[in-house]
Amino acid sequence: MTHDTAALYSAYAARDARFDGVFYIGVTSTGIYCRPVCTAKTPKATNCRFFTSAAAAEKASFRPCLRCRPSWRPATPR
Ligand SMILES: [Zn+2]
Asked: pTM here?
């Protein structure tokens, strides 16, 4: 996957479903992490950190978002 955070952020801002399960977003202002398809308001880019797995986000002390449930595996195979 790309490590271009600007590209990841724009995918997140667009709620691009192609990236669901590809990366996760840790929001430093709230301490939670989300899936790219989360319906919550997109945080500022400066508050976003990007992870390739939910486990990596949790290891960085982020908690799963209650709205998009990033700790759950996607229901359908990709
Ligand atoms: Zn979320």
From this structure: 0.86
